């Protein structure tokens, strides 16, 4: 062992070729030499030392390069000029419905996930949609959701006690056990700083398209389904876009107590 010089060596580091006798010595040599233990596939090997294993390693290395090059070529094809025109058309259609649809640069996860399309024949959007249930730490992704479908119908397979899937119902039982009047559907307001995140409340009885009008959407809508009776840190703006008045109940109660004290003093 080249680390402790006491025991017989059992292992050889693929990176620096140092011999070690145990896991402890392996860790010590990595720490002392700043070695990551990963074999260098491009390291020079003389002809005299070249073996069949080195040949196999080189062959696999070339295969990996070929696979990466092929993936890169496919990547450029997918994001061709035609695709860019399609995205521009999608944004223009959304703008016609008073929806500001923004798309992310190539490589972003939401850009890869997004499956939103517009059917020119039906003159209808089919949205890629994400549902988030914060109280159960659950998320579900829906594809090809028609824009004329109401939010109530969209949520039925998830929180409706009768129509929801048994597995989903069990996971979201805190929602299915609550009355529909307690369910609140929120959508994050985009283009705000991280320290002032705000949400808009959506109307469950109206269609998805009606609820998205006048909103900014980055790639696809994400809806947060919360319960009013349970505490959460989401700040919801009023219908006119005004900030909610905090502690209004406590302020009114404190004012009433002051008024009562003044009446007692005067009497």
From TrEMBL:
Coiled coil (residue ranges): none
A Pfam family the protein falls into: BCD1
A biological-process GO annotation: maturation of LSU-rRNA from tricistronic rRNA transcript (SSU-rRNA, 5.8S rRNA, LSU-rRNA)
Span list, region Disordered: 239-267
The keyword Calcium is annotated on this UniProt entry: no
Keyword Translocase part of the UniProt annotation: no
Matching InterPro entries: BCD1, BCD1_alpha/beta, Znf_HIT
Start and end residues of each HIT-type domain: 1-35
Record keywords, A-Z: Isopeptide bond, Metal-binding, Phosphoprotein, Ribosome biogenesis, Ubl conjugation, Zinc, Zinc-finger
Biased composition (Low complexity): 244-258
GO CC, one annotated term: pre-snoRNP complex
A molecular function (GO) term: zinc ion binding
PANTHER family: BOX C_D SNORNA PROTEIN 1 (PTHR13483:SF3), BOX C_D SNORNA PROTEIN 1-RELATED (PTHR13483)
Subunit: Interacts with FBL, SNU13, NOP58, NUFIP1, RUVBL1, RUVBL2 and TAF9. Interacts (via HIT-type zinc finger) with the RUVBL1/RUVBL2 complex in the presence of ADP.
Task performed by this protein: Required for box C/D snoRNAs accumulation involved in snoRNA processing, snoRNA transport to the nucleolus and ribosome biogenesis.
Assigned protein family: Belongs to the BCD1 family.
Protein name: Box C/D snoRNA protein 1
Species for this entry: Piprites chloris
Higher taxonomy: Eukaryota, Metazoa, Chordata, Craniata, Vertebrata
């Amino acid at each position: 062992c080249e680390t402790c010089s006491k025991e017989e060596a059992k292992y050889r580091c693929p990176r620096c070729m140092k011999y070690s006798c145990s896991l402890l010595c392996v860790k010590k040599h990595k720490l002392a030499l700043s070695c990551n233990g990963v074999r260098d596939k491009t390291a020079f090997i003389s002809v005299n030392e070249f073996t069949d294993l080195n040949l196999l390693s080189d062959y696999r290395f070339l295969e990996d390069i070929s696979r990466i090059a092929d993936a890169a070529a496919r990547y450029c094809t997918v994001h061709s000029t035609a695709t860019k025109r399609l995205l521009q058309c999608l944004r223009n259609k959304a703008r016609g419905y008073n929806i500001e649809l923004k798309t992310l640069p190539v490589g972003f996860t939401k850009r890869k996930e997004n499956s939103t399309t517009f059917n020119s024949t039906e003159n209808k959007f089919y949205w890629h949609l994400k549902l988030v249930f914060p109280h159960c730490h659950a998320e579900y992704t829906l594809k090809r959701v028609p824009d004329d479908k109401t939010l109530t119908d969209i949520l039925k397979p998830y929180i409706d006690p009768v129509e929801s899937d048994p597995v989903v119902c069990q996971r979201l039982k805190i929602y299915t056990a609550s009355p529909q009047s307690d369910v609140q559907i929120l959508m994050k307001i985009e283009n705000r700083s991280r320290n002032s995140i705000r949400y808009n409340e959506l109307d469950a009885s109206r269609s998805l398209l009606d609820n998205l009008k006048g909103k900014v959407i980055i790639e696809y809508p994400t809806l947060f389904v919360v319960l009013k009776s349970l505490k959460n840190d989401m700040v919801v703006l009023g219908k006119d876009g005004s900030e909610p008045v905090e502690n209004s109940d406590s302020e009114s109660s404190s004012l009433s107590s002051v008024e009562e004290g003044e009446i007692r003093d005067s009497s």
